[in-house]
Amino acid sequence: MSIFYLVLFYCFATSIIFTYGIGLERLFISSKNPSEIFFFILKNSIISIIALSIIWVFNKFIMLPLKISFFLPIIATIVLYALDYSFHKIFPNFEVSHKEEIVFEYAPVFLTIFIAVSFLESLAIIISAQIGMVVLSFILNSIKEKVDEGNSSKEWKEAPLILISMGFLLSAFYFIL
Q1: Better pLDDT: 71 or 103
Q2: Banded model confidence at residue 174, pLDDT cuts 50, 70, 90
Q3: d(CA 137, CA 26)
Q4: In sequence order, what are the residues at sequence separation of 6 or more whose Cβ sits closer than 8 angstroms to the Cβ of residue 155?
Q5: What is the mean pLDDT of residues 48-66?
Q6: Across residues 64-81, what is the average pLDDT?
Q7: Domain coordinates of the chain in residue numbers?
Q8: What is the biggest distance separating any 2 CA atoms in the chain, rounded to whole angstroms?
Q9: What value does the mean pLDDT of the chain take?
Q10: Among 23, 66, 60, which Cα is nearest to 45's?
Q11: Which of 94, 104, 82, 88 is nearest to 29 (CA)?
Q12: CB 129 within 8 A of CB 16
């Protein structure tokens, strides 16, 4: 049952998008195109889970016995970059990630490496980050539609009103959970 609470916690209460702001720009830009977000999340899920598996095994069986775990961020970056590059070579139909999007691809893996105690917990955090992005893309799209329909000024129709609304959502999720 603790994995269930962990998924709920990282999906909503301490969402990677709300708390750390990772992926918020991507959601804001492409929230009206669900297929683009779906493929982005699918690609990130695949790369994150494979990278996490490789990094976790490498850390547990090589780096920890040799007591060189301080190289973990460098190894993680190399593994993530190699997987991203090979993914784009294998599936050329997927568009190449922009420099800003690499943060969302890499950040959940780094977060889970340094937060999770077990491999199962780290998988739960990665999956909840992706689920949170799917759920919040629908919420963000509905907020954007309501703001566009409203009669607020042009300056408030853009990011400030949407970010304030998402801040209220974060507060609500945090106090509920």
Answers
A1: 71
A2: low
A3: 9
A4: none
A5: 91
A6: 89
A7: 2-176
A8: 63
A9: 76
A10: 23
A11: 104
A12: yes
Tokens of 117: 């105690």
List the structure tokens of 31. Answer: 């929230």
Q: Does residue 121 or residue 153 have the better pLDDT?
A: 121
To the nearest 10 degrees (0 to 180), the angle between helices 102-115 and 119-149 is 140
* Structure confidence by residue, pLDDT tens digits, 89-118: 887 776 655 665 666 667 888 888 888 888
According to the model, what pLDDT value does residue 9 have? Answer: 78
> Per-residue pLDDT averaged across 39-65, rounded?
88
CB 123 within 8 A of CB 49: yes
User: And the tokens for 164?
Assistant: 């304030």
* 122 φ/ψ angles, rounded to the nearest 5 degrees: -65, -40
Q: How far apart are CA 47 and CA 105, in angstroms?
A: 8
pLDDT at 95: 62
Question: Which tokens is 100 given?
Answer: 């800003």
Using the structure block, give the residue that is written with the tokens 């490496």.
113
3-state secondary structure 26-55: HHHHCCCCHHHHHHHHHHHHHHHHHHHHHH
Distance between CA atoms of residues 109 and 125, nearest Å: 9
Distances, alpha carbon 86 to alpha carbons 43, 61, 63, 94, in Å:
12, 24, 24, 12
Rounded CA separation 123/112 (Å): 8
Neighbours of 92 (CB within 10 A): 9
Selection from 96, 48, 99 nearest residue 76 by Cα? 48
